[in-house]
Every structure is written in C-alpha cells, then in structure tokens.
Amino acid sequence: MVSGPSFWGKQVLLQGNEAMVEGALAAGCTFFAGYPITPATEISEVMSVKLPAVGGTFIQMEDEIASMGAIIGASLAGAKSMTATSGPGFSLMQENLGFACVAEVPCVVVNVMRGGPSTGLPTNVAQGDVMQARWGTHGDHPIIVLAVSSTADCFDITVKAFNLAEKYRTPVIILSDEVVGHTREKIRIPHPEEIEVVDRIRPNMPPEWYIPYEDNSRGVPPMGIFGDGYRYHVTGLIHDVRGFPTQRADEIVPFLTRIHRKISQNFFDILMVDTELADDAELLVIAYGSVARSARRAVREARERGVRAGLLQLITLWPFPRQILEPYLKKVRAVLVPEMNMGQVSRELKRINQGMTRVETLNRIDGNLITPAEILVRLLKM
Amino acid sequence: MAEVTKLIHKYLRHDKKFPHVWCPGCGNGILLGALIRAIDRTGFEKDDIVLVSGIGCAGRLPVYVDFNTLHTTHGRALTFATGVKLANPRLQVIVIMGDGDAMAIGGNHFIHAARRNLNLTAIIVNNNIYGMTGGQYSPTTPYGALATTAVYRNIEHAFSIAELAVTAGASLVARGTVYHATMLDRLIEQAIRKRGFSVLEVISHCHTQFGRRNKMGGAVDMLRWQKENAVRVEKAAEMSEEEMAGKFTIGVLVDRDLPIYTEEYRKIREAARRRLGAVK
After folding, report:
1. Which residue of A has its CA nearest to B272?
2. Interface pTM (ipTM) of the complex?
C-alpha cells in the first residue's frame, strides 16, 4: 500500500495516521523525532519509511522529552519538524513545548488522544487532552491547537498546521483521536500546485543589522537559522529583542505581550470551523474530532424528522473561536456539546456563552465513540 | 597578552552581556578561555559553530560568545543538539553541561547520545554540586560530603562521568581539569576534531557552594587540590591501586572509531529511495 514518498493527485485508501504523514510531507516536513506510543505509532512508522526517501531525517529518540527537544533543535537549524504522541507522551513534552513558545520555534506536535488519565485506556478513544493542549505547559503563553475529524482532515489540517507554525513562529498542536487515527478511508491527495505551503520569513538585512526578536507590524520577527550567518542567542529565559536574558520589566512586558498579540491579532486567519445546516438551525451541535462525524449524521437525520438542527464543527480549538460562535449563540434555541470527556470544550463554551442560550452537554468517558443515535436522541428531546 | 586580547575581541559578545553571572574564582571562566582558544585553533568559522547548553552555571556559558548559541531546558541540551546536528550535519555542535544537568535530569539523554554516536562534542563541567541552585548534592557529589540537602552527609555514591561515557559507547572520552589549563585547550581541540560523539569531563571547583561547606578552602585551595590529585592516564597505568587512592586520571581515556550516525543515515536515505522508487 505504501508505494511512494507521496501520492500526488491520486485516490488512496489511508488511515488517519498515514494521511497525517502525507500532509506533513506535502507541507515540506523534513524532520521527525518520536517515541512509540499507541495509538500514534503509525505516524512514526510511516515517517521512518518515507522521510529518508525525500532527503529528510527520522529518528526514534529515547523518550518524548527528547523528541520534543530534537524537533526544536532541528527547526532552529532550518527544518520543518514534527513529532507525534499520545496522552502520557504529550504530558512529557510540555516543558519543551513551552520553550518552543518562548523561543518562537515553529514545529508541529500531534497528540492522538486515547483514554486517560495516566496510562488509562491505551487502545480506546477519548478527547481528554483539550485543556492539556491549552494549558499543559507552565506560565502564560499563546498556543494554536487544531482538531481533526477524518482522514481527509488529517491531510489538509496537517498542511495548515505547518503553515500556521511557520507563519507565526509557534508550535502548533494537532489533536487527533484513536478513531480518527485508525479509521481507513479513501481520500484524494491533491497535486502540489493545489495546496498552499507557507515558509517562515527569513531575515534579509545585513547580519549586523539583524535584531532577532524585534517587534514589527505582524508581531512575528524574521527567523534566522543556525548556520545562515545570522548568529544570535536562543533561550527559554525571557529575553530582550536581541535574545539575551532580561529581568527588566520594560523588556519582559513588551515581549510577553507581543507573543500573545501575534496570535490574537490574527484570530481570523487562525480560526477554522466547518458548518452544516447551521444558518437556519434552532438547535446547534458543537463538536470536534471523531465526534463531529457522529454529530453530522445525527444532524442530517434530525432534519429528516423535521427538527431544525445544525452542526458547527470546531477545527481550531485554541485560540477558542469566540468571535465565530457568538452570533450562533445569540440566535439558536439551544446548543448541544457532545464530547468524549467530562466537559472540556462545553466548559469553555459556557464561559463565553454568558446566558445567551441554553448549553447542554453529552459526555462519554467509557472509551467508546459517541454514536449518531445518541446525539439524535438528545436532539429530539431538546 | 596581545594575542589573548585579540581572541577576546574576536569571540566575546561585547555589548550588554557582561558582567557574567559566575562567582569570582569560578572554573567556568578558565573553561571558556580554553574553549575559545581550542575553537580558534580548529579554524571553524563562527557561523559553523553551534554552542548548546542546559541550565545551571555552566549552562550560562554560550550567552557570552559570538556563535549560534542555544540555551535549552534543564538536562535536555543533548536532545536539542541532536536535532540541530541531524537537520544540518555541516554544523559543528558543541554542548556544555554541568554535572547535575548532564548526569541527573539528563542522564538518560547522555547515555543514549553516546550510544547513538552523532558527531557532537559534549563538555561536562563537574564541580560536584548544584551551584546555581544553592549547593544541593548532585550525582557527582562524593560519598560523605556535605550539601544543603545533605547536611547529615551524602550517603549516595558518585557517578564517574568519563567512565560512564566509555561504557555507553562514546567515540572519544577524555578528562581534564581547569587547573591544567593548557592541557584543557588541547583536550577540547581534540574532542571537537574527533569524528563521532566525544565527551570531555572537566573537573572544576565550586568554592562558593561546595568548597566552603566542605572546608576545602577557596578557589586557589581547590585548584591546588586538582593539581595534587590529578594523575595523567599514562602515569596512572604504572601506579598501584593504593597509590591511586583518592586520585583521578586526566587525559584521553578512550579514542575509537565507530560508525557515525549522520553517515549511516545517508545509507538509509539511499535504501529508502531505492525501495520507494523516488527520483527526487
């Protein structure tokens, strides 16, 4: 089945995890470091086969901490880099993930979610890491988190994740889940000219003029890479515009403000949602990941039975797409949030809802997927 | 003297990075001088050198020198360095760590980096204590010594960094001291030139946190201790076990040629191209 470095322009039958590799390669990924963990392992396996064929490098590190460190190092030396893991491994990556935020190192981290906490339910599906993706590392920092729901998503959203990482010099987390990762579907891989690939902006001034962390209108400084003549200091300490550690309030505040601003002022470039039958909906289902597909079916069946239901699928989970959701919250009769955790996105939704509408939750934490029938039953009762 | 000044002007970052964070009399300054002289002798361009460090006193070293510098998280310097080297094998990657950094939190990364044999240089400054954090016992604090977390004496046994590196499979393993400064220059140069993973353990002193607490005197006394207790590897071979008691060896412990990761990986790329029929 795995027959080439990519299947440009072809229809192929792929697992979500495999499609993610194709998406990464299409986006220009040349470095992958990882540690085996169910249900993310196939990403490592396929990377180990395909990356060397396109001149890239795959390495299996001694643990997830090392994997995260290695992809940061590789990115600083110019590679588009990626790692993939599942819940427990994602926990181990958090410290270095914070380093990537502060040092503004583009990279992509995939978390194929499984049941937790701890070793939990390694082969079962869950969506318990939404808040860990947002707040797992320490301190205040922005982050971009995207959720995939199908094999096609795994390709498309992975390309987008690399683009956002490069554009905003930030780690981007992709939340997948066991069902998305292991479901085989037919997808069409586009031709190279059909996809947009973004590369980081590199400095073009004389090296002695380069100020590595200087603010600009985008809030994203051009990125020098090791060996290209723009020597500078990279550190996890809060740094001044030249990259050197600082404890001066007049340098700390502008820096931390800028790394938040570069994400917040570009909300609408980062926010992605998908809607179906949502414009005239009275009942709105807000879902993400594999559950969004159950919700899609449920919404269609509800319509057949005369219930004006609609679906709003979240692709960008963080920053939370408040600006997109608010208009819907103002006009629908009620919202249903089905998710495979105790209520992580529904909690965020209630936070922004502020009494605009009724928010109901449908939670499942037994390691099984929420079915279309379960959602439909709830919709018919609402 | 003029030569020294020239080197300082060539390699140090002049604006805003000084005064440095180290205590007066610290061995890190001697190491930094030796490192600059060694790099100068190897003739590598500044742009080709990447200096990576972890956290701690020794971890602050890269900030002062004008290379591509990377100050990572505690214990993880070798993992970042692995990524840098794999993404661009032409870069000369030198990693500076302290004993707590490399042996405790980074111990696992250290043995696996040695086993993997990337063409990197790891310099570990061993001052037997956590200096920056305030004098807690480290994996190289001697049995029976005092520390802020071992006020009733340390009951753990110390790692021998260099011997651990030999066992883990490093290509070149050497040990030097900051007292033997000219020898240190040469050992660093040899470690950088070595093709494969090279480890240099540098015996240094923390008179502020270790010496004072253990009644070993100031910086000068501790340097004298290094002078009196270091035995060259060649001479140690002729000495009996009793004569070597309490002493340690300096010099090159192991120098062997093993397959280098990045060169092996080139073969993997060729095999993958053949298997997948790609012509890229």
Report:
1. A53
2. 0.96
